[in-house]
Amino acid sequence: ADKNPEKWKTQSLYFKLVTAGVLFTGFIFGMMEVKPIPAIILAQALNGLILPFISVFLIYVINDPSLMGKDDINSWFSNSLMAIVMWITMMIGFINILRAVYSSLNMQLPDDIITIGATALITTVLSFIVLYKVYKMRVFKEQSK
């Protein structure tokens, strides 16, 4: 924790230096006529990866008895709800990645039933793999105690 929160107030030198640095960086990129579209597409693809990884990480951590304690791990009902959330985040993430790939190729992602069905199938299989591994980890660690 910062011991001196005053140094980051809007009138402080630190705040002004960071603001000036951001503006200067934007100015330099603008003068060099750098197009931000590839960076935006990359950020979109990376965001499509981050959300599913976070949901998978959370489901692993919350079901690990060595981290949470044997009495504090998720119930099966909570895990069912988390599995639904994980599947949805995987769907959103996978679609965002596909959109970024298609966008970088100057194409539009088809919104047909085949694309949606394939995405749903892939994310369902991945979700079941994650849930099976969580189940194995949970049962193995509960039996070893």
Report how far apart the termini are.
Answer: 37 Å
Number of strands: 0
Major sheet, described briefly?
Answer: none
Question: Count of DSSP helices?
Answer: 5
Rounded mean pLDDT is 85
Going by helix content, strand content and strand pairing, the class is mainly alpha
> What Rg is obtained from the alpha carbons, in whole angstroms?
22 Å
* Helical content band: over 70%
Instruction: Note the beta-strand portion.
Output: under 5%
Residue runs with pLDDT of under 50 for 5 or more positions? none
Q: Name the overall outline.
A: flat
SSE ordering: HHHHH
Fold and architecture overview:
This protein is mainly alpha-helical and 145 residues long. The protein is 75% helix and 0% strand. α4 crosses α5. It is flat and about 60 Å long. The two termini are 37 Å apart. The model has no long low-confidence stretch (mean pLDDT 85).
What is the secondary structure topology, with strand pairs?
Layout: H1 13-31, H2 37-62, H3 65-68, H4 76-104, H5 113-143
Helix pairs in contact: 2-4, 4-5
Keywords summarizing the entry:
flat, mainly alpha, 145 residues
Compact overview of the structure:
With 145 residues, the chain is mainly α. The protein contains five helices and no strands.
